[in-house]
Design goal:
734 residues; alpha+beta; elongated
C-alpha cells in the first residue's frame, strides 16, 4: 500500500486532520489512564510488600506448652506490634527485646535498637520535632536513626522501632519470638482485599476501553464516504479494509506514544493521593518499559482490528450507496450475561458450611472459588449492562415512533430503532460510571460511625477518658501521683482486680461506688463497691453500656486499671506519654476510639478512598466519552440535520433531537443501573465480610451531581456543532 495514497485518502482536508487529532487525544487519555491504573496496582502491591515486616506471625509465643519462658538467644528476639492513634493519625509501633549480641536485624540488614533507643520513619521524626516532647517524643526514648523508604508503605507512614526490656515484653501475651522480621502478607491473596481491588480494576478498565472504542468511531460517516469514493474508482474491498486498518493503526500508535508521555507526566500528581494515610512514592507508580510497550501495542492493534472489522462488516460499496446502515435488531437474550453475573455473585455470597464443604470435597477451595465467582460475576454484570442497554434503547425507540408527542421525539425514536447500539454506546461510559459509583459507594458505606458506635452513653467509657491496665506488683502510689500532677489531667480512678475465689459473671474490675457517676454509669446500685465488665465498658461497637454488679469490697485485690480524665487533647497526650514511660502500666492508655479495630478500619478507609478515587476517574472518562459521542452523532447526522433545516425545521427542534438522542438512553437506564450497582455492592459485602451496608456518604451524591453536570455540558457543547453543520452553504455542498 502506497503511503502517499493512504495520506491523500485519509488526511486530505482540515476536517480529517481534526478527526485524527481527536482520535489521538482520546487514545492518549485512555492509554495514560490504563498505565496509571496499572502503576497504581503495582504500587499498592509494592506498599504491602515493603510493610510486611511489621506483620508479625501469631506463633511462637514467649512461653512453652508448660507455661515456662522460652530462653532468649542471640538468634531470637521478642517482638510486639501495635498501633495507636495520635491526633487522627495511626502510629505503628514495633517493640523488640534482644540480647546484647543479637543477630536478628531489620529486613534491610541494620541492627535492631537497644533498650531505650528507637528508629523512626522520616514522617514520624518530623512529627516528633513539631510536637512538645511531653506529648509525644518522650514516649520513645533516644532517636538513633531513620527507617529507609524500602521499609515504609509511603512517605507519610508513621512507624517506630523501639528497644525495650525483655521482661516488659514477656508480660504481654501477644508478644512473639522471631528469628527474623520477614513478616507476613497484610491481607490474604484470596481474601476480600485482593478481590475488591480486582473488582475495582475491572470497573475502571471497562470505561477506558469504551473511551478508546468510542473515539475510534469518531466521524465514521465521513470516513465511509471517502472509502466509497475509493470503491468508485476501483479499490477492492480488501484495499478498503487495509487502508482503514493502517489509518487507525498508525493513528493509534501516535496516540499511545502521547499517552505514555502523559502517564509519565501525571505520575507525580497521582502519587500525592493518600491511601491508608500515606501518599505514594513516585517510583511506586512507575510502569516497566516492557509493560508500557505491551499496553501501547495492544491498544494500537485492537484499534486497527476493530476499525477494519467494522468496515468489513459494513460492506463499503461505491459512492451513492446507503450512507447509514441500519443495525440489526437487539434481542432480549442480551439480558442473559448480566443475570449470569448476578447468579455468580449470589453463589459467592453463600454462607452455608455444608455447601462449602461440598465444593471443597471436589477439590475447589471455597475461598478461591468465591473470589473467582465474584470477579467473574462482576465482569459479566458490567458487560451485561452494555448488552442490555442497547435492547432497552431499542424498546424505547419503538415506543417513541408509535407514540411520539412531537417531531423531535419521532426523529429521535427512529434513530434509536435504526441504531440502538450506537445510541447506547454514546452514553455507555456514563452509565457504567454511575454503576461503578453505586458499587463503590455501597462498598464504602460500611466505613465510619455506621461500623463503630462511639457516642456517649451510660455505662461506656466517656469521650474525655482513657483506660490502661496496670501491673499489680508495681509502685501504684508514685505512678498515680505522677499522672495526677500532669497538666490537663482532671481526675483519675483506680479499678481493682477481683479475687479469683469470688464467683461473678463476666465482671473483671471493682470500683468504689463514689466513682461510678464519674465513670459514666447512670443506674448505680446501693453498695460500697461495684464490679463491671471492662470489655463492655470500652467496646467501640457497643449500643448499650456495661452494667454494675454489687460486690463485697473484700473481694478486690490490687489495682488492675487506671481511668484518666482529661480536659483537652494535649492533656490526654501527656498522660499517654507518662503511661508509656512507666513500668507500672501493662498497656497504653486507650480511649473508646482507640479501642477500635484499627487495622480493619484502615483497610476499610483505604477501600473507601480508593473507591471514590475510582469514581472520579470513571466520571472523567465518561464525560470525555459522552462529549465525543455527542459530537460524533452530530457529524454522522450532519446531512440529515441539514436537510431538515432546508425544509424549515427550527434550530430549537434540532437541539431537542440532539438532547433526546443523548439524554434519553441515559434516563431509561439510569435507575436500573444505580439499583443494580447497590445490589452488586451488597452481594460483594455479603460474600467477603460480616459488615452491613448503610446509606452512602455525601461524596456519592456529589458524584451523581457531577455526572449530571457533565451530561448537560456534553449536550450543550454540541449545539454549536449543530448550528455550524446545518448552515445552508454546508448542506448545499454536501
Amino acid at each position: 500500500m502506497n503511503l502517499t495514497i493512504l495520506r491523500l485518502t485519509t488526511l486530505n482536508n482540515p476536517s480529517a486532520w481534526k478527526r485524527a487529532a481527536a482520535i489521538i487525544a482520546g487514545i492518549a487519555i485512555g492509554t495514560a489512564m490504563l498505565l496509571t491504573l496499572l502503576g497504581a496496582n503495582t504500587g499498592l502491591q509494592a506498599r504491602d510488600t515493603r510493610s510486611e515486616w511489621l506483620n508479625l506471625p501469631w506463633e511462637p509465643r514467649t512461653l512453652d506448652s508448660a507455661g515456662n519462658p522460652i530462653p532468649l538467644t542471640d538468634q531470637l528476639a521478642i517482638a510486639l506490634t501495635h498501633v495507636e492513634l495520635f491526633r487522627g493519625q495511626t502510629i505503628t509501633w514495633l517493640e523488640v527485646a534482644t540480647t546484647p549480641n543479637s543477630t536478628v536485624t531489620l529486613p534491610d540488614g541494620r541492627p535492631l535498637p537497644k533498650v531505650g533507643d528507637y528508629l523512626a520513619s522520616p514522617a514520624l521524626r518530623d512529627l516528633i520535632t513539631a510536637i512538645p516532647s511531653d506529648q509525644l517524643g518522650a514516649r520513645f526514648g533516644h532517636l538513633t536513626g531513620e527507617l529507609p523508604s524500602s521499609l515504609l508503605a509511603g512517605p507519610d507512614a508513621l512507624v517506630v522501632v523501639r528497644g525495650v526490656e525483655e521482661a516488659a515484653l514477656r508480660m504481654n501475651p501477644r508478644a512473639v519470638l522471631v528469628a527474623d522480621l520477614a513478616g507476613e502478607p497484610a491481607f490474604s491473596p484470596t481474601g476480600a482485599y485482593r478481590t475488591i481491588r480486582l473488582v475495582g480494576a475491572i470497573a475502571l478498565l471497562i470505561p477506558v476501553v469504551l473511551l478508546v472504542s468510542i473515539v475510534t468511531a469518531l466521524g465514521a460517516v465521513q470516513r465511509r464516504e471517502r472509502l466509497q469514493t475509493l470503491r468508485l474508482i476501483g479499490a477492492t474491498p480488501r484495499d478498503i479494509v487495509t487502508i482503514t486498518g493502517l489509518e487507525m493503526g498508525l493513528t493509534a500508535i501516535l496516540g499511545t506514544l502521547v499517552g505514555v508521555g502523559l502517564a509519565w507526566l501525571v505520575r507525580p500528581l497521582a502519587a500525592q493521593i493518600p491511601v491508608s494515610g500515606s501518599r505514594f512514592y513516585v517510583a511506586d507508580l512507575a510502569v516497566t518499559p516492557s509493560a508500557a510497550i505491551l499496553v501501547a501495542l495492544t491498544i494500537a492493534i485492537l484499534a486497527a482490528l476493530v476499525a477494519a472489522i467494522r468496515v468489513n462488516r459494513d460492506g463499503i460499496g461505491p459512492l451513492g450507496a446507503s450512507r447509514q446502515l441500519q443495525e440489526t435488531r437487539p434481542r432480549a437474550w442480551r439480558v442473559a450475561p448480566g443475570l449470569v453475573g448476578v447468579v455468580a455473585l449470589v453463589i459467592a455470597g453463600i454462607k452455608s458450611p455444608s455447601i462449602q464443604v461440598i465444593f471443597e470435597s471436589i477439590g475447589l477451595p471455597w475461598g478461591i472459588l468465591a473470589m473467582f465467582l465474584a470477579i467473574g460475576g462482576f465482569a459479566l454484570v458490567c458487560f451485561g449492562i452494555i448488552f442490555f442497554g442497547s435492547w432497552l434503547v431499542y424498546i424505547t425507540g419503538s415506543r417513541l415512533t408509535t407514540q411520539a408527542p412531537s417531531a423531535a421525539s419521532l426523529v429521535a425514536g427512529s434513530w434509536f430503532t435504526r441504531h440502538p447500539k450506537a445510541a447506547f454506546r454514546s452514553v455507555s461510559g456514563l452509565i457504567l460510571a454511575l454503576f461503578v459509583t453505586s458499587v463503590f459507594a455501597g462498598l464504602a458505606s460500611v466505613v465510619g460511625p455506621r461500623y463503630f458506635i462511639t457516642e456517649e452513653r451510660p455505662g461506656l467509657l466517656p469521650p474525655n477518658a482513657a483506660i490502661a491496665r496496670l501491673h499489680q506488683d508495681s509502685d501504684q502510689t508514685t505512678f498515680l501521683s505522677q499522672i495526677n500532677a500532669l497538666e490537663g489531667v482532671k481526675a483519675t480512678v483506680l479499678g481493682y482486680a477481683i479475687d479469683a475465689d469470688v464467683e461473678v459473671w463476666d465482671e473483671d474490675i471493682i470500683i468504689d461506688t463514689k466513682d461510678a457517676a464519674l465513670l459514666g454509669f447512670a443506674e448505680i446500685p446501693d453498695s460500697p463497691c461495684l464490679a463491671f465488665n471492662s470489655f463492655d465498658y470500652q467496646n467501640p461497637r457497643a449500643s448499650s453500656g456495661a452494667s454494675l454488679t454489687p460486690i463485697s469490697c473484700e473481694a478486690r485485690t490490687g489495682p488492675t486499671a487506671i481511668i484518666v480524665f482529661t480536659d483537652d487533647t494535649p492533656g490526654l497526650e501527656r498522660a499517654q506519654t507518662a503511661v508509656a514511660q512507666s513500668e507500672a502500666a501493662e498497656s497504653r492508655l486507650q480511649t473508646r476510639v482507640w479501642e477500635q479495630d484499627l487495622e480493619t478500619q484502615a483497610m476499610l478507609e483505604t477501600m473507601s478512598n480508593l473507591a471514590y478515587l475510582g469514581v472520579l476517574i470513571a466520571i472523567i472518562i465518561a464525560g470525555i466519552s459522552l462529549a465525543v459521542s455527542a459530537a460524533a452523532s452530530v457529524l454522522d447526522n450532519k446531512r440529515a440535520f441539514g436537510l431538515m433545516r432546508l425544509m424549515g425545521m427550527p434550530q430549537a427542534t434540532l437541539r431537542q433531537i440532539i438532547t433526546l438522542q443523548t439524554i434519553l438512553p441515559l434516563l431509561v437506564t439510569i435507575g436500573f443501573t444505580i439499583a443494580i450497582g447497590f445490589v452488586i455492592a451488597w452481594l460483594l459485602v455479603r460474600a467477603f465480610s460480616n459488615y452491613s451496608m448503610s446509606w452512602p456518604d455525601p461524596r456519592y451524591y456529589l458524584a451523581i451531581a457531577s455526572a449530571t453536570v457533565i451530561a448537560a455540558a456534553a449536550v450543550i457543547a454540541t449545539f454549536t456543532t449543530v448550528r455550524k453543520a446545518t448552515q445552508s452553504e454546508v448542506t448545499r455542498f454536501e
